[in-house]
Amino acid sequence: MVGRVTGTGSYVPENYYDNYDLEKFVDTSDSWIRERTGIARRHIISEEETTVTMAWKASERALEDAKIHPEEIDLIIVATISSNVVLPCTACEVQKKLGAKHAVCFDLNAACTGFLFAYNTAQTYIAAGLAKCALVIGTESLSKLVDWTDRSTCILFGDGAGAAILQAEEGDFPSMVFHSNGAQGEALSCGSREDYIHMDGQAVFKFAVRQVPLCISELLEKEGLAPEDIDYFILHQANQRIVEAVARRLGLTVEKFPMNLQEYGNTSSASIPILLAELKRSGVLKKGQKIVLAGFGAGLSWGATLIEW
Ligand code: ACO
Fold first, then answer.
1. pLDDT above 90 (res 191)
2. Which of 112, 154, 190, 215 is catalytic?
3. Three-class SS state of 182
4. Which region ranges are annotated with the description ACP-binding (predicted)?
């Protein structure tokens, strides 16, 4: 069995900081940020919004898109590093808000690879016959974990949520690869909810441009595919230069690598499902296309999955 993506949804807060706003907090400039990252603005939650409310709104849109009722969902997995509270988990909070009373719910922390790992986990539940209709969410309020006086990190991150509905149907288990390397964990860390994100930017950059093309090649090799056979590569939206370097190393131009990081910055586990939802909504994704999702981030962790759309 395979989980077919039958619905997607996203939610980003209305409020945002553009690069000129950040010039007022820290010693930076619009041109430095655009040149080094490609980011122009990042959306920031209001007082009334939380990691849970964003996930809930993205999920409602995904349910509407898939035309299913909340009670049909039997599995909710939320990927997040910025839950409102330690307990209960975000997935249970979303379950309550949706009224998805037949779902089993848990959270998963794999940082910016979180959605990919959650998606892969949902696929394995479906393949094992443990779930028929899964809701997979990435949701983050990183503005709460950012030190707004640290110019090396505050320019990068934003808030938002994305969700996908996976429904079981006959088909082969999708190809996926995933990796972790705890030995390099200090490159990207955050001690607690009272702490801030600390990052060795260059170490993370080097890790991403090396490992992401390698793991995509590993995935394609498993399937006997060449990079040219893939219609779209939906990468974690951390930095335009990382996405461009991955495309180059795979011998491709950047056209097959859609990006929305200009608008949202790095939303960690939410970035892949937000982009997926935007591409589905705008009709870019068509039946029969081959799509690769690839995530990378703290842990360190990274991976890729093939979707037959
Ligand atoms: N504005 C102006 N100058 C800055 C800023 C800023 N916002 N931030 C740093 N600088 C300065 C530094 O202080 C340094 O100055 P110095 O030469 O006087 O010491 C100079 O710019 C160069 O700093 P570097 O850190 O070497 O800059 P680099 O070119 O590496 O760019 C960046 C920094 C954008 C963070 C880059 O390393 C990067 O993109 N790394 C990957 C980060 C990332 O994507 N992390 C998340 C991925 S994983 C995940 O999503 C969790």
1. no
2. 112
3. helix
4. 237-241
Percentage of residues of the chain with pLDDT beyond 90: 94
User: Is 201's C-beta closer than 6 angstroms to any atom of ligand 1?
Assistant: yes
Indicate which residue of 19, 92, 190, 236 is catalytic: 236
Query: Which tens digit of pLDDT belongs to each residue from 153-162?
Result: 999 999 999 9
| Atom nearest to 296 CA in ligand 1 | 48
Q: How far apart are CA 123 and CA 2, in angstroms?
A: 6
Residue 266 designated active-site: yes
Which one, of 13, 7, 9, lies nearest residue 264 by Cα? 13
- SS3 state of residue 62: helix
Our CA angle for 107, 112, 118, nearest 5°, is 40
pLDDT(105) > 90 = yes
Nearest to 42 by CA among 141, 136, 178: 141
Is the Cβ atom of 109 under 6 angstroms away from ligand 1? no
292 backbone φψ class: left, alpha, beta (φ>0; ψ -120 to 50):
beta
Q: Is the peptide bond before 88 cis (omega within 30 degrees of 0)?
A: yes
Residue 4, strand partner residues: 167
Pick the closest to residue 272 from 308, 309, 236 (CA basis).
236
Q: What angle do CA 299, 117, 209 make, to 5 degrees?
A: 55
* Confidence check on the interface: ipTM exceeds 0.95, yes or no: no
Who's near 173: CB < 8 A, 6+ residues apart? 1, 2, 123, 127
C-beta of 28 in contact with ligand 1 (< 6 A): yes
Q: Domains of the chain, with CATH numbers?
A: 2-169 (3.40.47.10), 176-308 (3.40.47.10)
